[in-house]
Amino acid sequence: MTKEPMYYFSHHMIPCCFLAFCAITVQAAEPLPSWNDGPAKQAIIDFVETVTDENSDDFVPADQRVATFDNDGTLWSEQPMYGQAAFVMDRVKALAPQHPEWQTTQPYSAVLQGDMAAVAAGGHRALLELVMATHAGMTTDEFEAIVTQWITTARHPKTGRLYTEMVYQPMLELLDYLRSNGFKTFIVSGGGVDFMRPWTQRVYGIPPEQVVGSSVKCRFEVRDGSPVVIRLPELNFIDDKEGKPVGIQQHIGQRPTMAFGNSDGDYEMLQWTTAGDGPRFGMLIHHTDADRESAYDRESSIGKLERGLDDARAKGWVLVDMKQDWSKIFPDLKKR
Amino acid sequence: MTKEPMYYFSHHMIPCCFLAFCAITVQAAEPLPSWNDGPAKQAIIDFVETVTDENSDDFVPADQRVATFDNDGTLWSEQPMYGQAAFVMDRVKALAPQHPEWQTTQPYSAVLQGDMAAVAAGGHRALLELVMATHAGMTTDEFEAIVTQWITTARHPKTGRLYTEMVYQPMLELLDYLRSNGFKTFIVSGGGVDFMRPWTQRVYGIPPEQVVGSSVKCRFEVRDGSPVVIRLPELNFIDDKEGKPVGIQQHIGQRPTMAFGNSDGDYEMLQWTTAGDGPRFGMLIHHTDADRESAYDRESSIGKLERGLDDARAKGWVLVDMKQDWSKIFPDLKKR
């Protein structure tokens, strides 16, 4: 929320006055500069221009402009493993000295031996079970501090970039473009909600309350006179596949106008979104660029895209061909 | 979210140009006009002016300005019964012809006999069980339509007003004042989240995603080719008492700066809020006005306020004396 001007003044009244402002309308930038001209970029712009046009039959009032984004593989890279998988593995390694039994117990021994494929193949559910095993009994404040420390230091195994530098520049531009057109932007991810919230405002401009994700149950208690919220080793909600429309309904409370994903884990979110009345928009990012990022779809254990590829045309969902449609994949690195 | 100007234009560039705008600064209104001058009003204004002052040590950045409000008894009247209790009773009566067994089964027979006290005494938990019994197997879209129809027609048994006209004028002004100062305003209520969301934007200016409440579990499915979300007869979450800090953490993802309640159901929310680092604000509405609304606290089955009264001073929470502090209780009725 932007800070609005203060219309209220206490204890004294401001007399009427007339002020003349001189404003410079700066040269307007083309939207979506890292998107190549083509059907995907055109579909986004046509849709946004239509639903924001008050004279259009398909006008959508601003308070109904809701856009939901998957995170892994849609806003940032998920190969060779989910960012959260790397986090969990690092946590297991950090805690291993206190748990000698982990050397001979699965899935901990696989993690300690660096068998990333075995961990990733278990998907979000296995990851969340590992999160629970390593974080039970911790307060929400403590967990946030651990995530913040990790996300500002851990580096991608292939590129050496921070994970937050593995976000997609075209999607950052898309988030900005939609918000400039009155959309509220939400993340709806199978990943852990408390793993994302400490950094989504800074990286994506998405505040914590607009992040929907998987979660563990929590309990409020007063410890030594201080109220705390404890993370419990019990699943609360899996925000993936058929869980995504449920998470959207429970958290956002209205059906999105636009939904963006990249895998079959996003199929139901797009299905739910685009089945609504009035104008709706569904888009799938197809990872086709082995040189600049990764190329994967039907055979991949991470980010498998099969039903979405088969049904996109019939359902009117737009496919993004990363290699063709994106002139740039990752943001330029800021000088450090 | 307000609609922002469109900075982007497709397919053509706007040349630099200079435009002169002439704006009239209208006479600024005093904030909180329905609040009488006194310690409660002053505490709100002092706090807001401090946390929005960039030169103050207690400055709070806009993205951390979160204010949470209980609903029943804090934003609208809860006497002689919760609005949601009236809704449930009306639903039971509407569905009774299809359920002849309800005539002799509790709690349905009490509802059908109009024994409001027996229903209300069960609190939010009993209400939610009745909601589940009467709404199982219904889609979220169907439930929203029923709530919308009810809330625009049902009237308060004592005043004959619509329930949405039983909101507190001073609190509407407070919501506006906080939003004008960059706060995001949230409802955090023991009531059902899907009972509130269809009307909170219109009545309070609070969008559905900023409403936190109790909920039932839901399931996504495809019925006759159409995706739907079904409300299940199973409790998901009770957002009351020690549930409120948990609901805040799960949904909002950060600790509020300000919290407003009226009963001991809000105790833990204020406790959690005001125990945070930096400037925090807790306020309890004390119902002291039998003539204009109701007077109740320690002995009430609805909105019982006992721990909050006992501990407010020690915890630095501000008590609002409705009779003393509010010059007006309910909004003027719009001409219909």
Summarize the helices and strands and which ones pair or pack.
The structure is a homodimer of 336-residue chains.
Chain A: E1 17-25, H1 39-51, E2 66-69, H2 83-95, H3 108-112, H4 116-121, H5 123-135, H6 140-151, H7 169-180, E3 184-192, H8 193-204, E4 211-223, E5 226-237, H9 243-251, E6 258-261, H10 267-274, E7 281-288, E8 295-296, H11 307-315, E9 318-321, H12 322-325
Parallel strand pairs in A: 2-3, 2-6, 3-4, 6-7, 7-9
Antiparallel strand pairs in A: 4-5, 7-8
Supply the CATH superfamily name of the domain at 39-79 and 167-325 in chain A.
HAD superfamily/HAD-like
Shape of chain A: globular
Q: Over the alpha carbons, how many angstroms does the gyration radius of chain A reach?
A: 22 Å
Q: Counting H and I runs of at least 4 residues, what is the number of helices of chain A?
A: 12
Tally of DSSP β-strands of chain A: 9
| Percentage of residues in strands of chain A | 15-25%
Task: Provide an overview of this structure.
Two copies of one chain form a homodimer. With 336 residues, chain A is an alpha/beta fold. Chain A has a domain at 39-79 and 167-325: Rossmann fold, CATH 3.40.50.1000. In chain A, 35% of the residues lie in helices and 19% in strands. Chain A has twelve helices and nine strands. In chain A, strands 2, 3, 4, 5, 6, 7, 8 and 9 form an eight-stranded mixed β-sheet that branches. In chain A, α2 runs parallel beside α5, α6 crosses α8 and α9 (243-251) packs across α10 (267-274). Chain A is globular and about 65 Å long. Chain A starts with 16 loop residues before the first strand and ends in an 11-residue tail after the last helix. Residues 1-27 of chain A have low confidence and may be disordered. At the A-B interface, β1, α7, α8, β4 and β5 of A face β1, α7, α8, β4 and β5 of B.
